[in-house]
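Consider the tokenized backbone below.
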């Protein structure tokens, strides 16, 4: 029992977009643990962070991933911080995990952090850079395949993934 493929990567790496393309091509369900968590909690993730804090969110995320990895035949995308949990990294070992890599410049564009407002958004961009640098070794650790998504269309990325399935 296993998802067909599990997509990991930082915010702005295109996990949800690529998962949607792939699941449509394969005619299977796209499951996203962030969506599962929001449905179970009845509120957006941003509210869970504010109301209950990040450690609580990580517990919900851990449980959502355990459940999702037991399902088979779907394309699964995980939240950007899922790989922070050592148990999750261990659980991913037997699965077809693809790391969607992205440069800071491209991720900044995709998540809408304008480079034109350094005073307002510079700090957030620094956080994104730090987060991407700290997590890169963890994404690499769990991945069977790494794809640099800059300058590639969703269809090209999906083609590359399908070649490895
Ligand atoms: C997070 C990324 C988010 C979501 C949560 C935490 C992170 O998912 O799980 O806000 O720690 O990087 P996306 O990667 O889909 O934005």
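A designed sequence for it:
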């Amino acid at each position: 029992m296993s998802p067909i493929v599990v997509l990991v990567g930082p915010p702005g790496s295109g996990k949800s977009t690529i998962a949607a393309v792939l699941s449509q091509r394969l005619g299977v369900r796209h499951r996203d643990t962030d969506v599962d968590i929001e449905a179970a909690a009845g509120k957006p993730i941003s509210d869970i962070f504010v109301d209950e804090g990040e450690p609580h969110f990580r517990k919900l995320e851990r449980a959502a991933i355990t459940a999702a990895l037991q399902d088979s035949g779907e394309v699964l995308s995980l939240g950007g911080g899922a790989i922070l949990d050592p148990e999750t990294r261990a659980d991913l070992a037997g699965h077809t995990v693809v790391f969607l890599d992205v440069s800071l410049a491209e991720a900044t564009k995709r998540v809408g952090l304008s480079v034109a407002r350094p005073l307002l958004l510079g700090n957030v961009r620094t956080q994104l850079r730090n987060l991407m640098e700290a997590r890169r070794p963890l994404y690499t650790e769990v991945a069977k395949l790494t794809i640099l998504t800059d300058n590639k269309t969703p269809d090209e990325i999906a083609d590359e993934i399908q070649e490895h399935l």
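The chain has one domain: 5-163.
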